[in-house]
Amino acid sequence: MLVSLTVKQFALIEQVHLEFDAGMTVFTGETGAGKSMLSGALAAVFGARAHADWVRHGAEKAEVTAVWEGADSRIDTLLESVDIDADDAVILRRIITRDGRSRAYINGVPVALKTLQKIGDICLDMHGQHEHQALMQPLVQQQLLDASVSGVLLHDVRTSFEAWQKYRSRLQSLHHERGETEQQAMWMRDELARLEELDISQGLGDVLQSEVNSGRHHAQVQQAASGALALLDETEPSLRDILARAIHAIETAEDFHEGLRRSRQLLDQMDVLLGEVAPELCGVLDHAFDEVALQQSEQRLMALHEAMRRHNCDENGLLALMHEWRERLAALDTANWDEASLTRLLEESRDCYCRHAAALHEARKQSGEKLVGQLRPFLDKLALAGMQVRFEVQAEKNESGWGVSGWDRIGIKIMSNPGEPWRDLAAVASGGELSRLVLAFKGCGALTAMPHIAVFDEVDTGIGGETAWCVGELLARMGRDRQVLVISHLPQVASCADHHIVICKAEKEGRTITGLEPVEDQSRQAEVARMLGGVEGQSLQHARDMLVRGQAMLL
Q: Residue 298: what pLDDT?
């Protein structure tokens, strides 16, 4: 709900602050007092395109601030998207400079003008200014019909569309991947075969390097092993003989000193180790030089290093790549089966969607016919007896036009007078006609998902008498569900309002200014009397009677 509106240096308004309540609020005043400035100020603070003439002559800037209170998850989500805390109150502020430029703020944080416009789409419905008329929007026209359509049918259309989209996306991805990877698959198979020939294992590089080093230095290795073996066992005295003598020398006195006993233990360990060295050295001497094996090890090591350089990884990385390629190639091998399965599922989901969309199409046509029938009595009451209304529901056969809410293109067609052609609502209806058409829809219970605030600026153009009472009653009834702001020159409409504000103009320091003043009781009665043509006793009594009748409609 709009809680307050502060307007500074806006057109003829020097400074005005208004507090608002729920229900219907009417704004009245003499011709030329500037009633439409209120609509302009609301449009400005909710993101309408700025105009330089909004700035009061002689001022540097105009400023409009609106305070909105109320729970709406859409507003909370929008504020979160621009990193603004969603408080209990949302403060919207718009500043327009003399050159027509503007700045926008929400809760003191600068925002893009589009953010204000999005909040305006949620909160505000301006009747009389086409850019804000919700009834013009195709989505709202669709919602009018869907309000009486089975929720199960709408759910079936949505779920079947989502299933069709899912399988279509998967099949497109499969075709895309397969088209991209046919050449990649050939490369992967060739590369995998090359790597498999290497028989890669963890630490293979170290093993091959050892084999290459041993082969390239075979003579040196043999010489080293032979010399070491001779020193161990063949020379006089050998290393084994010297070690045995040392052990024998210690044995004679080891019982008398702890150091000798520890030394004897260490020498025994050395003897065991020396016993293991000799077989190792003999094994080295028994290994004959194999030039072919050396070449194979060298080539395998070179191929391994080249593969690691090519793929920028070590042996473990190559093993991981081989595992990945085997899985991808296996998936490609089963792609034909996947394609057949997905194609079948796609066709089934498409047929399912078509069945549900066709059923929804028929249900919407029936809903439109029913709604037009319900609309007729209200059109007659609102001086629109000559207007014919119909809902045009056309099925879109091109898949590009299908959606989660069906394949229908929905529009409201109007015949303003008998014998004229049917035309789109936006091309035919005037501001006043459109406003009354909205009231007619509201009267028959069709408008249930409209913005929180409805502003009517031309609703009573060209009407009077009982039609005006009907307009006032419907506006008051709308005010039970939404906040309704009405700019009117009809006493019947004014008498039906919950709250009444008079817009007046005065002269200050040689300049005209516009002011707004809430009126109640005697002051309100006097304003209604003025609207009737005078403030004498008869007009005041007539005004009193009209207020009694209007307020009775609110009960």
A: 77
In whole angstroms, what is the distance from residue 318 CA to residue 191 CA?
A: 11
The alpha carbons of the chain give a radius of gyration, in whole angstroms, of 46
Residue 318 to residues 55, 186, 311, 315, 377, Cα–Cα distance (Å): 72, 18, 8, 5, 80
More reliable by pLDDT, 28 or 177: 28
pLDDT band of residue 238 (cuts 50, 70, 90) is: confident
Give rounded-to-5 percent helix, strand, coil for the chain.
60, 20, 25
Which amino acid does the sequence have at 395?
A: A
Average pLDDT, integer, range 8-28: 91
* Strands ordered across the beta sheet of 499-508: 109-111, 102-106, 89-97, 61-69, 2-10, 13-19, 511-519, 499-508, 24-28, 483-487, 453-456, 124-127
- Which tokens is 173 given? 């991805």
Start-to-end CA span in the chain (Å): 22
Task: Give the separation between CA 546 and CA 541, rounded to whole angstroms.
Answer: 9
DSSP string, 418-480: TTSPPEEHHHH--HHHHHHHHHHHHHTT---S--SEEEESSTTTT--HHHHHHHHHHHHHHTT
Instruction: Give a yes or no: residue 440 inside a domain.
Output: no
Count of other CB atoms within 10 angstroms of residue 37: 21
Mean pLDDT on 163-171: 90
Q: Which domain holds residue 203?
A: 198-333
pTM of the model: 0.61
Residue 154 falls within a domain, yes or no?
Answer: no
Whether 297 is covered by a domain: the verdict is yes
Give the chain's domain count: 1
Residue at 109 is within a domain: no
Strands 453-456 and 124-127: parallel
